[in-house]
Model the fold of this input.
Amino acid sequence: MTTAIEQLRTTLAALSLTAIDARLEGLLENAAKKEPSYGDFLLEVMNTEADARRQRYLKARLQLAHLPYVKTFDQFDFSFQPSIDERQIRELRTLRFVHEASNVILLGPPGVGKTHLAVSLAETAIQSGNGAYFMTAHDLVTDLGRAYREGRLDRRMRVYIAPKVLIIDEMGYLPLDDLGATIFFQLVSARYERGSIILTSNKSYGEWGSIFGDPIIATAILDRLLHHSTTINIRGESYRLKERRKAGLIPLPEQQQEQPAVMAHRSRNKREQLP
Done:
């Protein structure tokens, strides 16, 4: 004879309520101990499934976003980068910029945490139910350039227009050719006031003419990017250099300053010892 628990498991499987099925014994044992009302027990059961589905949804969104890693704001060492205004970061974490389809531009030398902050913002947006997509500037332009040559640019462009948040990393590390600059302008124009761009670059705005090989198109791109945007300019030392210093692989800044003086002193002593 089939028991009630077996019948219940069969029904849960038929309805694809896998999270409830996995926790069924624990839920029933907890209910027997606490004796909640029928309504409270049913709510706990349904929340079990809802929470599990939300976690699966977020996991899928994170995978689709192609983030290079998952980083949180709690992992960011703001004390190491005092040039960053934490109040500005807290404002960005509200995601108002996503709702307003405005942009976030992170500028600074390599290793100061630009990508970390960009990924953290993207992860926050995903947790709030927004689609996001991450690409380096070089890979993005290469992909769209290939699509253009194959006659499918419009279709491929939709991949980068659709997400609420598009993260473009490492703008400026490699210059773009004429086709790349034109395609990038088309993408920025297509997303203008429709979706947010989070962009990181090691180049100041005054150097963007060299990235695109044409100051006119650089100005046109900046005009659209900066119209509704927040710029965060990080002026600090590389985290990677910090870790290498901690490991003793490179000297501390004060030791670097001492080295020329020590070398000069040694050189002077040698000259004085010469006959």
Q: What stands out?
A: The mean pLDDT is 89.
